[in-house]
Amino acid sequence: MKLILPTLLSVILIQASVAQQAGQFDLSFGTDGMIMTSVDSPSQGQNLEKLLWTEDDKILAIGWHHNSFDDPDYADLSIVRYYESGQRDSAFGNNGIARHNLGHENDMGDFIRSGIIQNDGKIVCVGGTQDVEGLAQIVIVRLLSDGSIDSSFAVNGIATFNPYNNGDEATSVQLQTDGKILVGYNSSAINCGIIRLHSNGSLDLSYGADGFAFVDHAVQDIVIQNDGKLIATGEYNPVSPYLWSMGVTRFDENGNLDLGFGTDGFTYFDHTNLNDPDLWTTWVRSIALQDDGKIIIGGACENQSSSYHEIFALGRLLPDGELDPSFGTDGRALVDLPTDFERMTKVIIQPDGKLLLSGYTAESKMIIARTHHNAVLDSSFNGVGYLMFDFGNGLSYANTAMLQPDLKLLVGGPANNAQGNYNF
């Protein structure tokens, strides 16, 4: 059976108005507020990982697609550009779709996890690719605004790094005000961390230890503060391979641990004894900064006695890394939604301080929740504080979300089409 994973976007209006309530689909977008796009066919799968908004009010959907129906390990970078209405922009790539093989051979896997747009409109994408021996390595590629590879970046537009020669992959990317590129990565070796590149794609040896800054936890998301310091978050294992916490590390602008944050630049916390003594962290995926410098971490917790029960989990830190006692219970909060399994993928702070949380359920439905600043569900959002939906054929996953300048919410990820095949 063919599996075709087109691009899937959903737009939800989150700003209440006379015509539409917050949490309702924006019917002016695509078809009834939704889009599905086949990035490549035939293909064994496609996955939308990141949504970006351009300065000229267009939407970039970034991810990867399998370039072979026969082997799920073969994959390429794929990007789709849309107008604000949801119509594909034919001036980008080939009829709105750019596809690129980044590996040494066509049978290598290029799994793109995130991206960011530079001030000049160029697009930096990060993820993992394979070297000639088939080992996973970090890949950073830069595209021109038309979707073609920018050959002036690194080597023919592509930079690769394999710090441990042991399965490395980039997960997140941010830009400094001076144009330097900060990339968060995970490794199957003991250390994960941050890489800094010059704007031309070369390694910035002045950062950390010869261009690398290391952490003791996974790096799933990174963010840059107004003062140039970088915060990284991901799963941390303080006790055993099965008991995880939310780990957070802050670096100064030179890649050194910020000793004024937590304990020697690092802190961690879990959600045990919050409503359930058996809760433990299983998933950390998102970080967001409030205007007052407080730090929101988003993920999920699982009940150890029931391996198929997960719940949205949040933590809020003060600027010095201490848990904020005014948030939830001692700085931690759970957002219990009406299914047995909810896994958070993104937390967004609205201008009014409310939190938008995106993710998916065990029934493979996308789920969006909105809470007040204290993590209590906001019933003015869709009447109950959340919206759960699929694309009519089941198997829909909200991998990412983005708040537009007009305060509409874009949600994206893979979903099944009418033929039972995955779409982007």
Provide a descriptive summary of the structure in words.
- By secondary structure, the protein is mainly β.
- Helices cover about 0% and strands about 45% of the residues.
- The protein has strands at about 5-15, 25, 35, 45-55, 60-65, 75-85, 95-100, 110-115, 125-130, 135-145, 160, 170-175, 180-185, 190-195, 210-215, 220-225, 230-240, 245-250, 265-270, 280-290, 295-305, 305-315, 330-335, 340-350, 355-360, 365-370, 385-390, 400-405, 410-415, 415, 420-424.
- A hairpin with a 5-residue loop joins strand 12 and strand 13.
- The two termini are about 15 Å apart.
Topology:
Blueprint: E1 7-13, E2 24-25, E3 34-37, E4 46-53, E5 58-66, E6 75-83, E7 97-100, E8 111-117, E9 123-130, E10 136-143, E11 158-161, E12 168-175, E13 181-187, E14 192-197, E15 212-215, E16 221-224, E17 230-240, E18 243-251, E19 266-269, E20 279-289, E21 295-303, E22 306-317, E23 332-335, E24 342-349, E25 355-361, E26 366-371, E27 386-389, E28 400-403, E29 408-413, E30 415-416, E31 422-423
Antiparallel strand pairs: 1-2, 1-3, 1-29, 4-5, 5-6, 6-7, 8-9, 9-10, 10-11, 12-13, 13-14, 14-15, 16-17, 17-18, 18-19, 20-21, 21-22, 22-23, 24-25, 25-26, 26-27, 28-29, 30-31
